[in-house]
Amino acid sequence: MTDKKAHLSIDGIDKTIELPIYASTIGPDVIDVTSITKHGFFTFDPGFMSTASCESKITFIDGDEGVLLHRGYPIEQLAVSSDYLETCYLLLNGELPTPAQKEEFTAEVKKHSTVDASVANLVKTFKRESHPMAILCSAVAALAAIYNDEIDITNAESRKITAYRLIGQIPTLSAMVYKHSKGEEFIAPDDNLDYAANFLNMTFGKAGQAPNVSQTIAKAMDRIFILHADHEQNASTSTVRLSGSSGTNPFAAIAAGISTLWGPAHGGANEAVLNMLEEIGSVENIESCVARAKDKTSGFRLMGFGHRVYKNFDPRAKVMKQTCDEVLAELGLENEPLLAIAKRLEQIALEDEYFISKKLYPNVDFYSGIIMKAVGIPTEMFTVIFALGRTVGWYSHWNEMVSGPYKIGRPRQQYTGSPKRDYPTK
Ligand code: SDX
């Protein structure tokens, strides 16, 4: 709380409404508008363009400066110096782990990485050509059937085990979804492999064969997971918070987040970027693509560009672009045509008045797909990888909410429908 107040004067009301202002550590302070309902008004903010839905200590974004901090640490530093499980621990607990804490956390995640046979069988019931996000969403919701009776969301220990199960099983489920689409046998988690290498082995390994995972690709995968780990109150995280605010099973709340992430305006954009780059096909076609993106009547947007919060470079896109160069060079793919198209498209867009005036920059999804394609991930699996990395962020926000006092989320509306009228008498 600060001593500062906002003063709202409303035509027809002679009294000025005083609204308390709460201070933030960094970034905008917030105006508490809860009392205006007493004066017969709701705030109106479709799309929550200027609404703080909650107080949080997990992630901070400065969209104008292109800053992203996880528990105060810049994403650029975590992406280069940390690893995904250390970042998971940081997001969940607020501090970097000691070596002993990291060792215990890693062991617990590994201990809880096996998926119940009933859920593995559920994955197998889907048509092979089903979209992987539809299967993943269903499979995570099915975990709510496995882990319902024993979960006590008011108990910190119970919530900790749920974190291990989600972080441990989301790569196993993601790999199963891929294996099912290929008609291949599932591969069990291998405790001798680190998190990203284990995921890659479960995805691309062959049953009965020793793991053979490239360290270059495993490191790139781990960095992709870090870059997707959390992003404040984005649509899918807000979904998880709103769903969780009813006290529902946390696995069911995470499944709701997966369904929200799937959309092309959100996490589904990485798949749409690759499809767009492949549709462009050559550098010569970029100009016409950019022209379409600027033409409101086309209904086409430059996928991987623009962001609700970033009006500057998405810091994750910068790290992703650098990683893209490193991985393609290491794999001898630096002449990958899609990379050339992406780089030229970025250059043209960033010099174009339309994109400059609307502050549209590449976001996290613009380069991620090129790396994932280079390491062999099929396009339709890109958003599954995003969901895999983001699971810890969703859970960290759910855990932050249920660890303290919270109310069920219940927005109001501006009603513009019919006034009260009587049912016609026969
Ligand atoms: C993610 O919230 C998060 O943090 C999300 C995320 C996370 O980590 O969780 O960062 C991950 O979802 C990244 C965004 C991925 N989506 C895309 O790349 C899809 C393409 N981008 C957009 O559709 C759009 O930019 C959004 C959805 C990302 C943001 O949309 P907003 O904030 O609602 O802005 P808007 O649609 O009102 O656009 C503002 C203007 C409009 O023009 P005007 O009506 O003002 O004339 O910019 C234009 C838009 O037409 N515009 C674009 C554009 N994005 C916005 N024009 C062409 N191409 C684009 N990509």
From TrEMBL:
GO terms for molecular function: citrate synthase activity. It comes from the Bacteria. The keyword Acyltransferase applies. PANTHER family: CITRATE SYNTHASE (PTHR42871). InterPro entries: Citrate_synth-like_lrg_a-sub, Citrate_synth-like_sm_a-sub, Citrate_synthase, Citrate_synthase_AS, Citrate_synthase_bac-typ, Citrate_synthase_sf, Citrate_synthase_typ-I. GO terms for cellular component: cytoplasm. Belongs to the citrate synthase family. CDD domains: EcCS_like (cd06114). The active site is at H307, D365. It catalyses: oxaloacetate + acetyl-CoA + H2O = citrate + CoA + H(+). Keywords: Acyltransferase, Transferase, Tricarboxylic acid cycle. One of its GO terms (biological process) is tricarboxylic acid cycle. Pathway: Carbohydrate metabolism; tricarboxylic acid cycle; isocitrate from oxaloacetate: step 1/2. This is Citrate synthase. It comes from Cellvibrio japonicus (strain Ueda107).
